[in-house]
Amino acid sequence: FFNYLKFLPNIIYFLETFASWxxxxxxxxxxxxxxxxxxxxxxDKFKDIIHHYDDMVVLREPKQKFVLAKK
Length: 71
Description:
Layout: H1 2-5, E1 11-16, E2 23-27, H2 32-45
């Protein structure tokens, strides 16, 4: 599943979580239809592991600055 996600052009990140959901996937798409085409493809190819998904639209994000902590 994760190897497949690596090659999808609209996916900007994916990660396993310790939350009540198992996986979080971030997309950047031009239209909602593009998102649903990808999700339909994933749901079809991985129906043994994708039983349900929720989606959320983010129209813009504030600029973020990440600083790596030294160990």
